[in-house]
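Supplementary Note 2. Why include the ligand at all?

Several targets in our set were suspected to adopt different conformations when bound, so apo predictions alone were not considered sufficient. For every target with a known small-molecule partner we therefore ran a joint prediction. The input for glutamine is given below.
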Amino acid sequence: MARYIFITGGVVSSLGKGLASAALGALLQARGYTVRLRKLDPYLNVDPGTMSPFEHGEVFVTDDGAETDLDLGHYERFTGVAARATDSVSSGRIYSNVLEKERRGDYLGKTIQVIPHVTNEIKDFLRIGAEEVDFMLCEIGGTVGDIEGLPFFEAIRQFSHERPKGECILMHLTLLPYLAASGELKTKPTQHSVKELQSIGLAPDVLVCRSEQPIPDREREKIALFCNVRQEHVVPAYDLKSIYEAPLAYHRSGLDQAVLDAFGISPAPKPNLSVWEDVLDRLENPEGEVRVAIVGKYTQLEDAYKSIAEALTHGGMANRVRVRTDWVDSELFEREDPAPHLESYHAILVPGGFGERGTEGKIKAAQFARERKIPYLGICLGMQMAVIEAARNAAGLETAGSEEFDHEAGVRRFEPVVYHLKEWIQGNHVVARKVDDDKGGTMRLGAYTADLREGSKVAEVYGTNVIEERHRHRYEVDTRYREKLENAGLCFSGMSPDGRLPEIVEWADHPWFIGVQFHPELKSKPFAPHPLFDGFVRAAVENSRLV
Ligand code: GLN
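The joint prediction is reproduced in token form.
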């Protein structure tokens, strides 16, 4: 049975709980343990699938098709353990399960209450897969004291109480603000935050204190005394230049030692940190630099494309270069020629997206990349835009477009080269969706297999002919246009095993122009960069040598 580490936050939000959890997971792995990481989110949305990426950041899709919080992306990037649907839950999902059971009569007419019905539902969730790993790390979103979070805190209190002693610990992250005027780090907010935990029956075993300034020993002593935590278990967390420093930095601060100590594991197995030393070496000692333009719509908020930014960094690490990215608003190209805006970049990436706004500009960016022979990676919508560009400007289908935009506008304007997918094959069965299904869950989601054409660029990039990648989309390139497009030079180099769904397109006479219907960025890791991002950055490096 797994040991449980609950991770909570206090004082302010955005302290980096997700990163601390992910780094701790990586450190436990480095000591030979198996881990699984989970996120419990207090918000009432049933899943993050329909939440605005402006507000909530990217939706991270798992192999088994769940739309989850971007923190699961961090977990995967740091531990390499593929996240699953059962690694993420929200209050909304918990309540929805409880209400469903109530409607079904499962509770036999009992009065339904937060304690025990909601807390039992949370505890059932916590127990899933407990047999499979040595450590289960469960991060509670939000901050202690948030009204929505209370059932989660109560559930972990009960859970820890019910398990044998020493099998669950609580790690709490706080902030030590620095007052420049008095030149002091203040510990009072941390004390209050721990009091808040204590008032609901929880006591931290390990305190992680974020601070911009070095934490003097006497302050650690004070925190230990007032918060009833051992001094060695007060772990400092300083600002980092890169998130990938976190495992080594937390190791230096003694986090993994404190955690194993709190469990009474002694002597602790020695860690092997060579993977992270190599990651950091590649990151800190680049031998060159390339510039990549990301042409998209949600350019205001980088979190909306978190995994793409990370995957590009990994691609840079694989090639020992620094990748500088600029986020370029595609709407600009609807008014202006893209050339002066894109000329200085070594490669262009058009990411996924929804809705018509900004798409004409993305099509222009794809055209620019094709004509100027600049490396192009089109992801999901970015692939669809490349296909529309090919149809319009190379295959003579001048009115080519996507049904998505006609649906949105309520008028028929385009020849639907990209059309709404209503049924498809998953494994051995057919999945069917109606246009007017609920907004959540109408997409082709999760891992699907694709067959790559022998001798194609992608087959070379992947080094194999069969791949599995994660999807999140409603629309598909229509194979009825395949012949026309292939005659124009756009090769359909990756297809679903039944040959019905185009997964990858590439221009045969271009140094590196690839569009993929899936999201490769979700599977890239710093210690195992995704082949497409490795190849894309390599193509950018080669292009940079030409200019
Ligand atoms: N909007 C497009 C679709 O649903 C693309 C989705 C995406 O880029 N993730 O097919």
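Residues 531-546 form the longest helix (16 residues). Residues 287-546 form a domain with the Rossmann fold fold (CATH 3.40.50.880). Comparable summaries for the other entries are listed in the accompanying table.
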